[in-house]
Every structure is written in C-alpha cells, then in structure tokens.
Amino acid sequence: SGTELAVGTSAGRAYLFDRDSLTAKWAVQTEGQVRGIAFQGDYVYIGSGDGLLHKVRSADGALVWRAYTTA
C-alpha cells in the first residue's frame, strides 16, 4: 500500500516495512525463494518457489491462507 514497502529474499523471507521510518512491521518465512509480492486492500500476497501463494494480513503478517499454484 502507499505507506508500506515489501521485500522478499532468496532465503524465503518476506518483510513488510513502514516506508517512512523503514522500520520492519513483520517478517514471514516461506519454504522457497520469494518470487513476487502484491498488495490488495488489507492483505499482502506472497508467491514463493515452493509453489505456494500465501495471503497474509498487512497489519500483522498473520497467515490467512496458502494454496498451491502449480500442479
């Protein structure tokens, strides 16, 4: 969103930072390299090399659901 910055790593961690202070709000661990991050409303979607799409709440990083995106 407008006041947040998301970063993913090859080690499978996704971070959400406050854009103004660059303070980390949360970090989420996936089982594969973070391949993409998208914002939609109050949620952050994280695609990873483990074939999963993770939906987490932007407020606290809590996992809402995850689903396989490959067959």
List keywords for this structure.
mainly beta, globular, single chain, three-stranded antiparallel β-sheet, 0% helix, four-stranded antiparallel β-sheet, 71 residues
Task: Describe the model.
The strands form two sheets. A four-stranded antiparallel β-sheet has the order 4-5-6-7, with no helix packed on it. A three-stranded antiparallel β-sheet has the order 1-2-3, with no helix packed on it. The chain contains no helices and seven strands. It has strands at 4-8, 13-18, 24-29, 34-40, 43-48, 52-57, 63-68. The model has no long low-confidence stretch (mean pLDDT 94). It is globular and about 35 Å long. The termini are far apart. The chain is mainly β and 71 residues long. Helices cover 0% and strands 59% of the residues. Strand 4 and strand 5 form a beta hairpin.
Set out the fold topology.
Blueprint: E1 4-8, E2 13-18, E3 24-29, E4 34-40, E5 43-48, E6 52-57, E7 63-68
Antiparallel strand pairs: 1-2, 2-3, 4-5, 5-6, 6-7
